[in-house]
Write a structure and sequence with these properties.
about 475 residues, Alpha-Beta Plaits, four-stranded mixed beta sheet, three-stranded mixed beta sheet, alpha/beta, Glycerol uptake facilitator protein, 17 helices
Length: about 475
């Protein structure tokens, strides 16, 4: 009995020791995790503040070469939007210098640098004006006035554009604040935030007299610009960049107050914009979900969703085609609106008569649209195949010209330097031992009879070395003509 009690006590002791070891291991794991997470997410360590400030200030100016780069990048983007080529638009965004003044505005407000702020605002205005003028002149050409899907996509700001601008701005300022700037991140942000297409669309709106397009595109551009600058302001403050010092302390305090007030106003305006866009996006998303549900029930609706949804009037207007609907259906649809959080939204139902001829015409139009879409897709594939073939041929031509020896260009120099030569020729010879292939450059020469054999050898050696340097080729052999 005593032995059993001893064994139980020993087992309890071992169990407690094991539990203690497990607790120690878990405690050590959580302590390590607690130390690792701050190191993983910190961005203050390694910030090169002086170099970052210098890079931002250098990127503000839009003059000389930078102005021409902006003009040409806007022109490329306008062409890309006109032909609905995403690849061309992306290429234009990669070379665009639009981001510099926007970063400068956010940075200068954060560090109370009034001179940099003035320069940033002036260059920002010049950048916008130059971009709109360039796109306006391009789209003023009659053959480029068509409203393509890529252009229309930049006339409808969305709450997601705000999130993209915020995320892009944060990523950008963090990337350039590293000791070695991550330029691949900078390029990616330039593409993601898409500053150029809205400016091109604004120019298109002016050129075509559609001020609705102009206003919507400029609104989208200002959203992107404000939130990128705001992100730069927040990260600059968080990284504790040194404030600009002024000899006049009163002036310094006044500038600090003005900068803080501007930052506060921009922040408040940004939050208000986000709120408006969020409400608009929520309303349209729920309205589209409601319309999609009606279509799934078999209700035939005429027109696109954009024509049926009116956010400003808080109204959904539906054109119902075909069968009659009852008051019970209308009540059920209003209940569905209430379930979607659109209880205060007015539902307007307009019904047309059931006409089989109209229905057939609609089906024919749909069929024509599908066939046209298929034809366009086939043409696009053919064009892509031809572009690939052209690229291959261009590569072959570049390789050919790279290996081409322009012997005719140096004949006059050879005649002047080697007046004892009677004639000379150049050819390529390919040799192989069935394992590898070598290319030998053969230069055949014929000397005048008066030249001695010893002098010939010296001259041929000198000629070989000169030709290798002059033609940038190796493996030259000098041969005597019979």
């Amino acid at each position: 009995m005593e032995e059993k009690n001893k064994e139980e006590l020993e087992r309890d002791k071992e169990l407690k020791e094991q539990q203690g070891e497990v607790q120690k291991e878990f405690k050590g794991f959580f302590e390590s995790l607690k130390e690792y997470i701050p190191k993983l997410l910190t961005i203050r360590v390694g910030t090169d503040k002086e170099a970052t400030a210098e890079r931002i200030r250098e990127g503000i100016s839009i003059k000389g070469q930078t102005a021409w780069i902006l003009v040409f990048s806007i022109l490329i983007a306008s062409i890309g939007l006109n032909v609905s080529s995403t690849a061309v638009v992306i290429g234009a965004m990669l070379i665009s210098p639009l981001m510099g003044p926007i970063l400068g505005i956010g940075f200068s407000i954060a560090v109370n640098d009034v001179d940099t702020l003035k320069g940033s605002v002036i260059n920002f205005g010049a950048m916008v004006a130059l971009s709109i003028i360039t796109s306006f002149l391009f789209f003023s050409i009659p053959i480029f006035k068509e409203a393509t899907p890529e252009l229309l996509a930049r006339t409808q700001p969305d709450v997601r554009d705000v999130l993209i601008a915020i995320s892009g701005g944060l990523a950008l300022i963090i990337a350039i604040s590293r000791p070695r700037p991550q330029f691949n991140t900078v390029a990616g942000v330039a593409i993601a935030t898409a500053l150029m297409p809205p400016l091109c669309t604004a120019g298109f709106g002016l050129a075509t007299g559609n001020f609705g397009y102009f206003g919507s595109a400029m609104f989208l551009f200002m959203i992107n610009s404000i939130y990128i600058a705001l992100a730069a302001f927040v990260i600059t403050k968080y990284l504790r960049f040194p404030m600009r010092k002024y000899i006049n302390h009163a002036k310094r305090r006044r500038i600090a107050r003005i900068a803080s007030l501007v930052a506060l106003l921009v922040l408040a305006f940004s939050i208000y914009q986000f709120y408006l866009l969020y409400n608009y996006n929520r309303f349209t998303t729920r309205a589209e979900r409601f319309i999609a549900g009606l279509k799934e029930e078999g209700v035939n609706l005429i027109g696109e969703n954009e024509e049926s949804i009116d956010y400003d009037a808080n109204e959904i207007k539906l054109y119902v085609f075909g069968k009659d609907y009852s008051s019970r259906d209308e009540e059920r649809w209003k209940e569905q609106l209430n379930e979607l959080g659109l209880g205060s939204t007015k539902l307007v139902l307009l019904q047309s008569q059931d006409n089989s001829g109209i229905r057939e015409d609609i089906d024919k139009i749909k069929e024509l649209y599908i066939n046209s879409h298929k034809m366009l897709s086939t043409k696009d594939e053919t064009i892509r195949d031809k572009d690939l073939r052209i690229d291959e041929l261009e590569k072959d031509l570049r390789r050919y010209y790279a290996n081409e020896v322009h012997f005719d260009r140096i004949l006059k120099e050879i005649q002047i330097n080697y007046d004892d030569l009677q004639s000379i020729s150049f050819a390529r010879e390919y040799r192989s031992d069935f394992e590898k292939m070598d290319t030998i450059n053969i230069v055949s020469v014929k000397w005048k009879n008066k030249v001695r054999n010893k002098n010939k050898k010296d001259q041929e050696k000198k000629l070989k070395e000169w030709l290798e340097q002059r033609l940038k080729v190796k493996n030259i052999e000098i041969r005597n003509m019979p």
